[in-house]
Structures are given as C-alpha cells and as structure tokens.
C-alpha cells in the first residue's frame, strides 16, 4: 500500500503545488526530454542496420528553441513578481517614468519594462558633525580632524566648538530617490548652514546654557530648508553632544567660570545679608517714624491745649487783673515749693536775720525754724 493510500480521506484532496514542486517537475521533464533525444532510433524490420539513416544535426533545433523559450518565460514570471518587506516602500518606474509606489507585500510588474527601487522608510539614519563614532570593539568618539565642521563664531565674536547629530528618516521615497542627487551631502550642507547661522546670532554664554532651545530651533529651520529642497526626508531629532570653547582657550575659560561662580557666591551671600538686615532696619525705621509722628501729634495737641488755656487766662486777666495775677502766683508756688528744700524769705524792711522756711522737714510742724544767714 502506498503512502497516499495510507493518508486519511480528508488529506487526499487536491492542493495547489508549491513553487519548489513546480521547479522539480520542470527539471524532471527537461531531463526526460534530453534523455529521449539522445536515445538511438529503433532497428529496422530487416535487422541489418542499427540506424534508419544518417544523423541530422538540426533535428533537435525545435526542441532546443522550445526549451529556451520556456526558460525565458519562466525568468519573466520570476522577474515579474517582487516582494516589499515591512518598513519598505517600492517605487516602480516604467520606461524611466514614475508609475506607482508599492506598499509591503507581493506585487507584480512588467519584466524588462518596469524598474523597481526599494527604499527603507522606517530605519533612522544619522549624520555626525564635529566627530565620528568608531564601533571597532568598543564604541568611541573621534574628534581629531573634524574641527572645520565644529568651530563656529558667536554673535559676541567668540569661537565655540559645537558637535551635534542629526537623525532623520525617509518620508517621501520618490523625492528621496530622484529630486536630489546626493541626499546625504545635502543634509550635511543644510545642517551646517542652519546651525552656523543660528549660533552666529547668539552670544557665547547663551549657546552654552540653552542647548535644548538651540536644538529645537535648528531642527525647525533644517526641516523647512529640506522641504524646500524636496529631499524627501523628515528630521527626527537634533542633538548637541558637546558645546565647549576650543582647547587652546579652555584654561582661561575655566578661570572665567571660576571667577563667575565666586561672583555668584558673593552675590548670594550679600543677598542673604540684605534679606536679614534690611527688613529689620526697615522695621526699626518704621517704628521710629511712627514714634516721631506720635510725639509730634502729642506736642501739637499739648501746644493747642496750652494755647487755649492761655487764651482763657488772658480773658480772665482782662476782666480781673489783680485777682488773676494773685491766683497765677499761688498756683505757681504750689508747683514750685514742694520741690525745694529751703526757702529764704527776703524783706527789705526787716533788719533782723532772715527767717528760713525749711520745707524738707517733717510735715505738720507748727512753725518754721529760723536760721541765721551765712556770713
């Protein structure tokens, strides 16, 4: 029993032959064809001659022509089918003119008439400026010999060393293939032009401090320039790897940075002292000013009260001068005498020793003690 008979009924149904099976069958038929052509002709009926006649060299020309034609047809079929892998786009030209773009998958074209170009649209490509990446064993960066790309002049007439990377991928396969002769060199020239122009409009310190803003501006203007050139690429990112002064001036630049850091430190210390002293001084000043305003208001109010009191006394004095004078005198004595220790009473008509009024003695004494004046 053959293997085919041993298979289950549902496995015997007809299925399409694979390309390998078709090629194997074709090779087998060609072998049979050429083996049949090499066999000698059958012997005649009389058995006297091994061949019926002389060999004709052109007897198999038709068969050979048929084989060649079959091979050409097979090659045409093979060339008419093409496959586009994921992440690729195929551009088909017919007699040199753009025909169509092919997405990933199997497609057909006219052999010997259509031309196919495959473009990788998913891979990210990059261009390096001011350095090159060496991948022999361990990844390293080579900067020697690329100063022409990296040295730039800033707006304040300083020289700066800038190294950067431009990453891009194909956005339009047709324009990528046919609009620009050398897309890679066009990207390099455009990137250098844009970067030098933008850096040339910025000060040295600004370039050092704001590389993210610089990268965003370069990416924006570079994409606009490449779109104008119809390069068929989209800029993915622009990264500035290294931004430093040139090597000959690095020591002086480091000294300037140290001095700048010292200046900032001193400024911060002064600001701290200012924040600690000035608010306290401002508070004390406000307190003194408020006290002065209060003292001034009190003096003014007191003066106004004294003025009103003097005006009232003046009115009374005009009405009764003697009485008012005597009252003022007595009031003055009431304020003055309690603050003195001894009082000498001088009378020009008295010839005896002057009596002394001792006000510092015990209160409630009957009469003051008389003392003689000192000679």
Keywords for this entry:
375 residues, alpha+beta, Tetrahydropterin Synthase, Chain A, 4 domains, 10 helices, 13 strands, rod-shaped, disordered N terminus
What would your notes on this structure say?
With 375 residues, the chain is of the alpha+beta class. The protein folds into four domains: 61-120, no CATH class; 125-245, 2-Layer Sandwich (Tetrahydropterin Synthase, Chain A), CATH 3.30.479; 247-336; 340-375, no CATH class. The protein is 49% helix and 19% strand. The strands form five sheets. Strands 6, 9, 10 and 11 form a four-stranded antiparallel β-sheet that branches. Strand 7 (132-134) and strand 8 (140-142) form a beta hairpin. The termini are far apart.
> From the alpha-carbon coordinates, what is the Rg to the nearest angstrom?
59 Å
CATH topology of the largest domain: Tetrahydropterin Synthase, Chain A
Count of individual beta strands: 13
| Mean pLDDT over the full residue set | 80
Low-confidence stretches: 1-13, 44-52, 362-375
The largest β sheet comes out as: 4 strands, antiparallel
What global shape is seen? rod-shaped
Distance between the ends: 175 Å
Which architecture of the largest domain per CATH? Answer: 2-Layer Sandwich
CATH C-level class of the largest domain is: Alpha Beta
Helix content: 40-55%
The tally of structural domains comes to: 4
Strand content: 15-25%
Question: Total number of helical segments?
Answer: 10
Category by helix and strand content:
alpha+beta
The H-level CATH homologous superfamily of the largest domain, spelled out, is: Band 7 domain
What are the secondary-structure elements, in order, as H or E? HHHEEEEEEEEHEEHHHHEHHEE
């Amino acid at each position: 029993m053959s293997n085919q008979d041993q298979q289950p009924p549902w496995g015997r149904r007809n299925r399409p032959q694979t390309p390998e099976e078709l090629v194997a069958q074709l090779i087998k038929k060609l072998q049979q064809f050429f083996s049949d052509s090499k066999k000698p002709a059958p012997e005649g009926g009389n058995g006297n001659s091994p061949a019926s006649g002389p060999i004709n060299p052109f007897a198999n020309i038709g068969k050979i022509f048929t084989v060649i034609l079959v091979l050409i047809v097979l090659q045409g079929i093979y060339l008419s089918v093409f496959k586009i892998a994921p992440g690729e786009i195929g551009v088909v030209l017919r007699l040199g003119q753009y025909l169509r773009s092919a997405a990933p998958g199997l497609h057909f074209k006219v052999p010997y008439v259509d031309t196919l170009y495959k473009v990788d649209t998913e891979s990210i490509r990059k261009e390096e400026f001011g350095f090159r990446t060496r991948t022999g064993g361990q990844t390293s960066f080579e900067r020697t010999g690329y100063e022409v790309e990296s040295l730039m002049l800033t707006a304040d007439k300083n020289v700066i060393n800038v190294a950067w990377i431009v990453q891009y991928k194909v956005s339009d396969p047709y324009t990528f293939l046919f609009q620009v002769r050398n897309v890679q060199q066009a990207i390099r020239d455009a990137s250098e032009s844009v970067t030098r122009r933008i850096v040339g409009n910025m000060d040295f310190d600004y370039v050092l401090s704001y590389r993210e803003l610089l990268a965003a501006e370069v990416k924006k203007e570079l994409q606009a320039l490449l779109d104008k050139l119809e390069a068929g690429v989209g800029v993915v990112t622009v990264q500035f790897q290294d931004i430093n002064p040139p090597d000959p001036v690095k020591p002086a630049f480091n000294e300037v940075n140290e001095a700048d850091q010292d200046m900032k430190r001193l400024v911060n210390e002064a600001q701290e002292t200012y924040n600690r002293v000035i608010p306290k001084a401002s508070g004390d000043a406000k307190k003194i000013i408020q006290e002065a305003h209060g003292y001034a208001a009190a003096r003014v109010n007191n003066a106004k009260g004294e003025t009103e009191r003097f005006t009232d006394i003046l009115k009374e004095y005009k009405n009764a001068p003697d009485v008012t004078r005597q009252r003022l005198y007595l009031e003055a004595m009431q304020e003055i005498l309690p603050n003195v220790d001894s009082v000498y009473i001088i009378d020009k008509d008295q010839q005896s020793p002057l009596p002394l009024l001792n006000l510092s003695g015990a209160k409630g004494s009957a009469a003051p003690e008389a003392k003689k004046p000192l000679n």
